[in-house]
Amino acid sequence: MTTVQAGPATLAPETRSPAAVRTNRALLGLGGLLLLATGLATLALGTGLLNPPAQEEPVLNEVADGWLDSHSWIWWPIAGAGVLIAAICLWWLLAQARSNRVSTLRVGERTDAGRTTIAASALTDAVETDVESIRGVARAHAHLAGTPTAPTMTLTVALDGRVDVAQVQAQVIGEAIEHARSALAVDTLPTRLEFTVPRTVARDIR
């Protein structure tokens, strides 16, 4: 049974995987704390709060400069730390490309003979074909996110303006989404349904 609810969709758009979101929050939080601590320490030194003579001294005084000259090996750990930071930044950048989309779906329960899997593209192609066959639809695009056993679908439908949106919505939910749910042998298939309405209405020649 498919339930139609009025109002905006309840499923949020899928942009990145949950792992990427957690990584962003952790690294941004850590980076923010480090920058805050550095800024407060710099402000304290610059205003003389911690050590009054400090604001008049150069960043590297003679003692520090002499120590660096006699311990030239310190630059190797510093270079290693720089390489490590660069590697973390690269890993973080690559993590942004990870989405929550699924490539395969598991159909039905596992049996002694194994488990049936299908390509997610096979289902989305079938859904797009079903939706585009509905009168009033110009084109459709679908993708699946979530997990292979509990997918969610985002379906974007571009209308040509010949049919009322509510009528198209009822057919999409009652036919295309219902067929997808039956194909996966699941009771529910959470779907985010988005409509694109044209600025001009096409002539209906049917």
Q: Your description of this structure?
A:
This protein has helices at 18-46, 62-70, 75-95, 120-132, 165-184; strands at 104-111, 114-119, 137-146, 151-159, 191-196. With 206 residues, the chain is α+β, with helices and mostly antiparallel strands. It folds into two domains: 18-95, no CATH class; 104-196, 2-Layer Sandwich (Alpha-Beta Plaits). Strands 3-4-5 form a three-stranded mixed β-sheet. A two-stranded antiparallel sheet has the order 1-2. Helix 4 (120-132) packs antiparallel against helix 5. The longest helix has 29 residues, at 18-46. The radius of gyration is 29 Å and the shape is elongated. Mean pLDDT is 78; it is low at 1-10.
